[in-house]
Amino acid sequence: MQLNQYTKEFKTNFSLAWPVIVGQVGHLLIGMADDMMVGHLIKPNTLAATSLAATSLGNSLIFIAMSIGIGFSFAITPLIAEADGEKNHQKGRLYFNHSMVMMLVLGIFLVTAMLFMTPLLEHLRQDPDVVILAKPYFKIVAISILPMLLFQGLKQFSDGLSKTKFAMQVTLITLVLNVVLNYILITGWSFFPEMGIVGAAVGTLISRLVMVALMFFNIKSRKIFQNYLQPLKLSEFNKSIFQKISKLGVPSSLQMLFEVGIFTASIILAGMIGKFPQAANQIAIKLAATTFMISIGI
């Protein structure tokens, strides 16, 4: 087989992949912005290291929940693409609505599970000062899982129709918003009080709420999506469609869980050594994860 038979599709594939890559890296950069700004804006340096270790500990469990939801959402794209390839808008509408219901239910379940798991932070043999700071951060960021997963569902739907730039644009806007909110809320500005690590958590929550709202209105305003957006009647919900989505989503979800679980274990193990190794480990993992996100985007 000649080389040009392989390469002729590269341009099309790249045009679809690069916005997804930028979007995936953008998600990572939102977390990195939290880490960098917590490390630089909180004084003195000892408190900054403790705060960075606390965000690392809090996010370690959050990443597990998010990996389950994000992995499950990967089932949406091929199903929507299948319906689009068949020019079957009704089928795509059914897949989209069933998928979003499942993402909503999964998001509520994961948020609830994370909030109930808050006391677990005290039993992971971590530095007590780190745990004290991590608990309020963890609770607020846990709530942000729900809007994050709803955004992810809308993103995968859009990707399934080969409209990959919309999610990228929203992610980059949200990244800028998150940096601004962090600066205001971590150190305090005007009538906003200094909130420290909690300010970073509030900034993340607000950013993710804005993210899902922007993505929804972006999709709502585009003609290409209109045939898929009509809400379903109760009688149109079908058990077999839920099962089909689950058969694709659950294995993908478990794969993501196992991959992220390794990183999570390293964060907790580093925390058993001390807060400074944990803070350093957080920085190293975030930098290494950048390459991982590029491959996920492709």
For this entry, give a set of tags.
298 residues, mainly alpha
Q: How would you describe this structure to a colleague?
A:
The protein has 298 residues and is mainly alpha-helical. The chain has a domain at 42-164 and 223-297. Helices cover 81% and strands 0% of the residues. The chain contains eleven helices and no strands. Helix 3 packs parallel to helix 11 (275-297), helix 7 (145-160) runs parallel beside helix 9 (197-220) and helix 10 runs antiparallel to helix 11 (275-297). The longest helix is centred in the last third of the chain and has 35 residues, at 239-273. The radius of gyration is 20 Å and the shape is globular. The model has no long low-confidence stretch (mean pLDDT 84).
Q: Which class best fits the helix and strand makeup?
A: mainly alpha
What is the overall silhouette? globular
Quaternary state of this entry equals: single chain
- Order of H and E elements: HHHHHHHHHHH
Q: Ends: how far apart?
A: 24 Å
Which range does the strand content fall in? under 5%
By DSSP (H or I, 4+ residues per run), the number of helices equals 11
Please mark out the parts with pLDDT under 50 across 5 or more consecutive residues, or reply none: none
